């Protein structure tokens, strides 16, 4: 059973997060291990496993980025940890942003930092706009293999941008 089946929601990127949360609370209450404290050990173990799966599923489905990766994996796209790379053309685009980050590390400036964060957010929005028709298409039909490559690339680019933003927050 996949997480979409677990929460009885449509397999899609564009989910109703309020509905997801409502179903999460219902499933959590129905399957909470504390309800099974007087049950047999097997029933307690089963409740713990179900509760863990519900929590894991909720974490994945409520987060757009994690949900995208999960969807890609459901459709057969594999991710090799540490071996995935963003397209070279994207890295070329990132050169300017990386230079600005290095300049900020040498000479911190709050205004330039905020401007850089805004630039990254704008780039992120543009990248999403490029692939959003594919998400809408999935609402109607199962994705084609040819549709999955641009979505995997988007996922990897988004991961790169998230890492940049995290480095800016922590640096």
Work out the radius of gyration.
Answer: 20 Å
DSSP strand content: under 5%
- Give the SSE order as H and E letters: HHHHHHH
- Morphology call: globular
- The total beta strand count reads 0
What is the number of independent domains? 2
Classify the secondary structure makeup into a structural class.
Answer: mainly alpha
Distance between the termini: 41 Å
Oligomer: single chain
Provide a count of the helices.
7
Largest sheet: none
Helix content: over 70%
Report the uncertain regions. none
Rounded mean pLDDT score: 90
Report on the architecture of this protein.
The protein is mainly alpha-helical and 171 residues long. It folds into two domains: 3-8 and 15-62, no CATH class; 88-170. The chain contains seven helices and no strands. The chain has helices spanning 3-6, 17-31, 41-62, 64-74, 88-106, 110-138, 145-170. Helix 2 packs antiparallel against helix 3. The chain is globular, with a radius of gyration of 20 Å. The protein starts with a helix and ends with a helix.
Topology of this structure?
Elements: H1 3-6, H2 17-31, H3 41-62, H4 64-74, H5 88-106, H6 110-138, H7 145-170
Helix pairs in contact: 2-3, 3-4, 4-7, 5-6, 6-7
Task: List its traits.
171 residues; 2 domains; 7 helices; globular
């Amino acid at each position: 059973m996949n997480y979409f089946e677990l929460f009885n929601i449509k397999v899609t990127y564009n989910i109703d997060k309020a509905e997801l949360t409502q179903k999460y609370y219902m499933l959590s209450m129905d399957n909470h291990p504390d309800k099974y404290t007087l049950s047999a050990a097997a029933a307690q173990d089963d409740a713990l496993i179900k509760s863990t799966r519900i929590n894991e599923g909720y974490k994945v489905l409520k987060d757009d980025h994690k949900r995208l990766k999960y969807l890609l994996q459901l459709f057969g796209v594999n991710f090799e940890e540490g071996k995935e790379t963003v397209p070279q053309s994207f890295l070329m685009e990132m050169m300017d942003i990386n230079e600005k980050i290095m300049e900020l590390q040498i000479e911190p400036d709050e205004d330039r930092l905020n401007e850089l964060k805004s630039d990254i957010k704008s780039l992120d929005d543009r990248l999403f706009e490029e692939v959003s028709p594919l998400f809408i298409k999935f609402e109607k039909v199962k994705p084609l293999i040819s549709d999955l490559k641009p979505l995997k690339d988007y996922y990897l680019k988004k991961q790169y941008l998230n890492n940049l933003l995290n480095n800016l927050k922590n640096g």
